[in-house]
Structure prediction request, 218 residues.
Amino acid sequence: MAIATGGLLGYRLPENFLFPYFAFNLSDFWRRWHVTLSTWVRDYLFYSIGGSRGSEPRVYFNILFSFTIIGLWHGAAWTFVAFGALHGLFLSAERLWARLLPDERCLPRRAVHCLGPLIMNLCHMVAMVFFRSRDFASVGSYLGTMFLGGGGVRRLDPAWWWAVAGFTLAHFAMYRGFLRQRARALPDWAFSIVLGVSFGLALAFSAREVAPFVYFQF
Prediction:
């Protein structure tokens, strides 16, 4: 919506999310997730304090400090700081792993590369628990339920699993450019119908309650 509105006013805005959930590792994830913010922090903060130059401990400090600031940018709460710092720790661990095993053809590096999207999404989901929780007590409760189970587990209706599968396939088709290519090939009248049906489905699946905007927590 922001890109389209900017285009109507004569501005060319960059895409801010480039299908981050199909990234192969967390470094690739942050090149795709919130691109304008991560690029700004990289150019004006990370590089300013030394970037990837200097000793390894200094580089890890630069990564951790930059991502802690990214977390704080999202909200004035310690849970947001923890969200950013946790991503900084994950990225530092990713860098350390590559340093310890520099040969990309070795079996451990190849295995981790194959499992990259799974590991990346797991790390991000753990960090997002901090992002969406009101306090650290809630964080402990959510993480305990995620990894240990318990009486608080809520089972989803089977129809939702089909919905998740459908949205995943649609997201993959968008990621590969299939839907964009097909949409460009449609005549105007057919494109209008598809757009109307898509808008109707979005309304049908939208939440009935208005959730407070996350950045209003400042």
Remarks:
- The chain has a mean pLDDT of 87.
- DSSP finds eleven helices and no strands in the chain.
